[in-house]
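Dear Dr. V.,

Thank you for agreeing to look over these. As mentioned in my earlier message, I'm a first-year student in the group and I'm still getting used to reading structure tokens, so any feedback on how I've presented them would be very welcome. I ran two proteins. I've put each sequence directly above its structure. The first is here:
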Amino acid sequence: MSENLLKKYKIKAKKSLGQNFLVNEKIVEEISNQLDINDKNIIEVWPGYWALTEKLLEKNPKSLRLIELDNDMIDILNDRIWNNNLNIWDIDFKIKNIDVLKYFPEFKEYFVIANIPYYITSPILKHFLYDVENKPKKMLILMQKDVGDKIVKWQLKEKDITKKNKNKTSVLSLFIAKKAFVKEVLFVWKQNFVPAPKVESSVLLFENHGLYDDIDDKEFLDFIKKWFSEPRKKLVKNLLKNWLNKEKLLKTFEVLNLWENTRAEELTLEKWIEFINEYKKA
């Protein structure tokens, strides 16, 4: 069905938008089964020609918002509606022709489902986890696998880091862990896309936990950006370079039993939260 639609509408992926169309019906079905969306508010980002949307509509969501930037895709969507290929009449349904980073959901509770261009993965995650007022309860995101691996590698459970441990934190893994639990729910071979990307993909499930809502988001993001300005350098040098108070900084290291040669990538989220709290008290 998916490949037939590509041929019918003469759909060609646009490199400028990072488009790769998922055409394996079985995987599309598996993705749609990851969340119970019955009577839920759903936001689907970059739906393309509706391969996944069709499956979502079958599961009776309360509402469905499609966020699509490509005008050609919207023309195809409207044509499919006009020709009664899809039943949208029983739900609150709208197509939003807008950049997703400029879209702010009107719902208090909702899920986000997306097959997003790899080049904009981090900005989209930051938008929904930090920028919008009402955060999604869950997100189901198909993304580049190696990026997904970096995200799921570090979660809220404390890790024992040694020089022999190759696992390292990053700005991406930390800013996500502050907001959500994450797990990989599906691996997707690159051959399942048209055109096939150069890398494999995975589907990640994000669940908002709210455990660190007492830590100011802007303050947290500012800190970790300073800490990771040069991740291979000693943490003390990075922080002093970014104008933090030396006396308070050294006192914080002492209280938390951190060595001065510690590097930013060696600390877990819990340690960074402790660090922020102790530094403010010092």
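The second protein is here, in the same arrangement:
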Amino acid sequence: MSPHTSHDTNEVRIHTREAELEGFLTLPADCRAIVVFAHGSGSSRFSPRNTYIADILNDASLATLLFDLLTAEENEIDMVTRELRFDIPLLTKRQIEVVDWLCQHNELKKLSLGLFGASTGSAAALGAAAARPDAVKAVVSRGGRPDLGPREDLQRVRAPTLLIVGGLDTQVIEMNEEAASNLQVENRIEIVPGATHLFEEPGKLEEVGRLATAWFLAHLTGR
């Protein structure tokens, strides 16, 4: 992994109807768009992989918000039961509430909004894009499970969607192809050769960052 430019990051607390969610907000100078990360499968705002991707986006003058879909108490329960990470309706509802929070924020509502989902967070991101088509302008999924969301949600998505999957992650490739067949908007599947599910091989996560940056710049800023 290559070093990145240092950017100022602030802790934020997002109040939803049922929970207070914690996150990290990074606003590079002259940013015109923001990407919200939806973690999944037991991950959090501390995810080293998503933090690495966020750094790449920040270097391209894209703001990022990494937040926890689960509260600390819920996460403790999930670490034992592993049930909440697959509660797609709950994760989607939280994602929608964060989108609404951004749209009502005095400073952030002016930024064009994209969503980046990983694992089960991809289903939540696409569900939020379906529910808020006027707000969400682009979606990127990394090793995601977009197939876990309702088919009707996929059909209602209006944001251009990029699905990135590791070339060795054959089962997830099939799941993404199935989900893509239900999308009725511009979409693309990018398969990263030689990458497994977590893109842990040298240079593979950097490739994810490059692909995501290009997609978000094109669809959020026109660059």
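From my reading of the second output: The first strand starts at residue 9 and ends at 15. The first helix runs from residue 48 to 59. Does that match how you would interpret it?

Kind regards,
E.
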